[in-house]
Amino acid sequence: MTDTHMSNVAHSAPRRKTRIHWRLLGDHLILSAGALLMLLPVLLTLFTATHDNLFIHKEGVQFWFGDQGRANFSRAMFEKGGFTQNVDGVKMLMNSLILGIGFAVGKIVISMMAAYAIVYFRFRFGLVAFWIIFTTLLLPLEVRILPSYEVVQSLGLVNSYTGLILPLVASATGTFYFRQFFRSVPEELLEAARIDGAGPFKFFVDILFPLSRTMVAAIFIIMFVYGWNQYLWPTLMTTDESLFTLVRGVKQIMQVWVGSSYIPDYGVAMALAIIAMLPPVAIVIFFQNWFVKGLTESDK
Length: 300
Fold this sequence. Notes:
The chain is mostly helical and 300 residues long. It is 68% helix and 1% strand. Strand 1 and strand 2 form a beta hairpin. The longest helix has 32 residues.
């Protein structure tokens, strides 16, 4: 067959029409619009953080970058401020990390122990105990904050990391997720462990905990973000600025006037707000696969 004939055959072949999936396109447009709507406040905060305080005070929220971004972010992290002039962004970042990590680890330990006891120890009223734990979801921190503060104060734990973390570690949510996951573990593993002479502790450490790694990662992400974003409890528990978290520090900066014009330090406050967003976002992005697996494996 000649090249000319092959060319004619190729030209005469019908071209496939590209089908446009309008429904799929519409779904993506809606998701994109929702994402942009959620990102808009963050972008406005970032843009505003790059302007000086007087300009922000006169013009309000900005829609593009200014020339003070580097200075504002540097001051937010390294310049000591507050009423005592003894705390900086690095210290508040460390306090937030201690609160977030301690909060998450404590909840995971307590939740795994409670769920393990409910699922594998056949004691009387075990189901009743689980539902009593579960009903504590109806009593969030804001409802029991006064008695919790009274207990912490009577123990002398005000203005301490223990007082910040310990009253928050009991978690009905974590207990529920771990209970559902432990119930999905095959009974044959428990029987095999008994035959091999493994006791409850060895079964938990060598078998159950390694199987729960994705669930632990998912609960850790949820609890870390929740603990990181705590504002009311740290505000009530800490009067010492050396224990302030980033979320608390943003509010504190807005209450302090700078210069002879008595204008709040808007630029530094906005920069600190952006810095406070970065660790939770980074954890969710880097561990999103474990997060999804941990929340879906309990259904298997």
